[in-house]
Design a protein that fits this description.
With 70 residues, this protein is of the alpha+beta class. The protein is built from two helices and seven strands.
Length: 70
């Protein structure tokens, strides 16, 4: 699991996927979320603008990241 530091919280879920390179674009991130391919804290998340905060764990495919406030 990779730790990712953010400067401020909350951050929208689709932005995390995009900025961490888990997807190639914001549109791809939104599609993956809408299709139920993304887990937040072990549960399927379908809200593109779900607010992610420090301590949350995001999983997409084989990649898993833990969010930490810098």
């Amino acid at each position: 699991m990779k730790n990712v530091e953010i400067l401020k919280e909350p951050v929208e879920l689709y932005k995390i996927l995009k900025f961490e390179g888990m997807v190639s674009s914001g549109g791809e991130a939104k599609t993956a979320i809408a299709e139920g391919q993304v887990l937040v804290n072990g549960e399927v998340e379908t809200r593109k603008r779900k607010k992610i905060i420090s301590g949350d764990i995001v999983k997409f495919g084989e990649e898993e990241i833990r969010i930490k406030l810098k």
